[in-house]
Amino acid sequence: MKKIFLSFTVFSVIGSCNTDNDNNNEQEISPIIGTWNQYKGEEHTSFNNKVKVHYPEGCESENTFEFNQTHLNTVGYALSKGACVPSEAYNTQYTYDKTSKKLWYKDNNSNAVIVSKLTPTEMVTEDRTEDRDDDGIKDLVIRYFRKIK
Questions:
Q1: What integer is the mean pLDDT of 4-22?
Q2: In a 10 Å sphere around its CB, with 0-12 CB exposed, 13-18 middle and 19+ buried, how is residue 67 labelled?
Q3: How many CA atoms does the CB half-sphere of 23 hold within 13 Å?
Q4: pLDDT surpasses 70 at 129
């Protein structure tokens, strides 16, 4: 019983301390902030006008993209000893402009990704930063994400 009372007291104190800050910060927090998982990708090549659809499978389907206020942290998963485990991590600064819907990464400031859809649970990006079919024209890659945290 003491544990239940103590837990209740701790949550009550935390809640009462954060009430004022929550109201002020709610307007400032972008819906892009959170942890995302890519569930689909589309590659639209300009050379042959083909669309290649990709659905991440296996360990790749566990990859995460975590946006905080200023940085993007990605974690890639790979199979090791029969289990999917984090195998690579990447961290970079980003800037997101809600008005233009452009997303820039610090290591690629010249090319922005367009966020064509952003809701509290789903994000779709349109990336024209690479020439995937080597025809001299940058191709369109659309990525579909779900928010998991």
A1: 39
A2: buried
A3: 4
A4: yes
